[in-house]
User: Fold this.
Amino acid sequence: MQLQHLKYFLQIAETGSMNKAADQLFVSQPSLSKVISCMEAELNIKIFERNNRGVSLTEDGKKLYMYTKNILNQFDLISKISTEEIPSVISVSAYPNLLSTSLLSQYYSLYQGKNIIFTLRESRINQIAEDVSGLRSEIGVLHINNAQSKEVYRLLDYHNLEFHLVATDTWYAVVGPNNPLFHSSAVNMRQLLNYTVVRPPDDYFSALTTYLIIDGVSLSEFKRAVYLNNGAATINLMKETDIFAFSLWLSRPDYERHGLKVIPIENCDVSVEMGWIKRCKERLSSEAQTFVGLLQKYYGKEKI
Assistant:
């Protein structure tokens, strides 16, 4: 089946007449009929019903029309890639609550008024790797703690992805004004055991984190947890209850603007690498290069 045949089919479907379509396409009516017959034989369906007024689509023909319309629209976009008519596209997958709203605002300001589509997918490590590997996202932004690093780097290697370090960090406790620890200058893990922790839904790599021991307390001892994959809901929950979260110092500005406090954890020796990934040996689009530049500028100065 040729692209030209799909264009013929579309013209017939939209005019409802073989003769009208033939006139508009400057081809003979028998030629159009032959094209449709060949398509019906190839697809093993009946496309048109003939009637006194011309032709009408069968149920299978309606499905074919929908798919053909989409295909030709996409082909039209492809033909305009070299022009400014097509919006630039950038897709980013990131660990939940990691990217600062200030950074995203800066990126928006750079492209304000320009023809660009920006997509942000918040996911856990495995999904981020699959998004970038599967071309759903051009880059991924994630952080890796020392309990995960060996397995994460194995995953990235499997997907043929490369990791670019932006900053190193450690864990802090984030609490709201309803948590008794709010005015503390530092907290310890035994104190935190008294409260419910909020975190994104678990995956294989977060399960590895439960093996971490901080100041003699294993993360597996935290039995009370709320799982949320929504940044706004997480922040509101911490503002209104005594729930706390483990987070990075890198994320402090976003929490503090909502009235939350980021507090050091005593004797915390967790090491965290924050960075971005892309497909190996692949050149980033100019939009993605700009985003990475902002990422480096915004977080790169924070070396813990």
The chain has three domains: 3-79, 88-167+273-299, 171-264. The two ends are 60 Å apart (CA to CA). The mean pLDDT is 89. The longest strand covers residues 161-169.
